[in-house]
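REVIEWER CHECKLIST
Item 1: Sequence provided? yes
Item 2: Single chain? yes
Item 3: Sequence as submitted:
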Amino acid sequence: MYRRIIMSRFGGLGDMVMLTPLLRGIKILYPETRLTVIGNDNAKEMMEACPFVDEYFTYDKSLKNTLFLIKTLWKSDVVYLMDTLYRISTVYAMARIKERIGLPHKRKAFLTKCLTVEPWMNYAYEPVVYAYFLKKGLGIDVTTLPDWDKLYFPKLSINQQAHVKYLLGDFLEEGYIVCSLNTGSTVKDWPLKHWLILFDKIKEKNKKVVIIGAEPKSSTKVNFSDNVLDLRGKTNLLETGFVIDKAELLVNGCSFPVHVANAMDTPVIGLYGSQPDYRARPQRIYASICSTKKCAPCDTLFNSPGYCIHPTCMESITPNIVMDTIEKFYHEGKSLGVYRLFTGDKS
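Item 4: Structure as written out by the authors:
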């Protein structure tokens, strides 16, 4: 078996959370194998806190960083490239990694084994696709493990929780709905005007809201009503996970918080426009609310037509529809939702 496995994944934070079942599975099946993950700097805090990741490196394209990676990874056993980036593939080739496995795209010359996209993958939950390629490329089948697809997100220690509890104040005891106003892409964002209407409707039901995410720019600063606690920019990555963990419900566009909620067993109402819910929704979700636009969803996994210049798919999801779903959630006793793993079978 491999002495060292390198998992190369450059993507959003949600992509990194969806990678965790594979990382955990590799470490369970081969505990003596050194597991190295390489990706963006934004995931460093999360990856370094994963007990099944031995080391995490970032790549910033600088000469210093490139030379460091070549030296550190020199003649390693194998790297599984889980994206289609070109430049990082040249680094692995220069490091003379023995097996370099991934989708060819424009980098076929730098790979030793090319994977092939299959039609069913556009209709499968992304970790299912990752796991298929892992088995195809490296001969490692994590799907043989019980609950193999369970996502993981690091929890805070008791001492670390104190800061977040202070920020939440009375909201922690009274219960709250958590959301982020922005996703990793504007095309997946629910309009701000819809959020504000929803918050007013939630207030009428005597419920509270906690907003998470990056610190807002001056153009997106809003004066919210007193049932809304704005924690944008006030928590780090792991602390944000604690806020999601303690929430009664997450309402969100397709983004990092949805996958964290899935890992924390926090119920989710997901809002989906260009992004297909069958590919990116959690295995267990209370409700998917999808755009009614005829052109949605349009974002296929490996052959996306590109984003609209003026997307309207998310706007078609009205605050009334979301509020009706929230009321149903509380009426039904805060259900976590029915488990379903999308494997590409459209039936």
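Item 5: Key structural point noted by reviewer: The chain has twelve helices and 14 strands.
Item 6: Recommendation: ____
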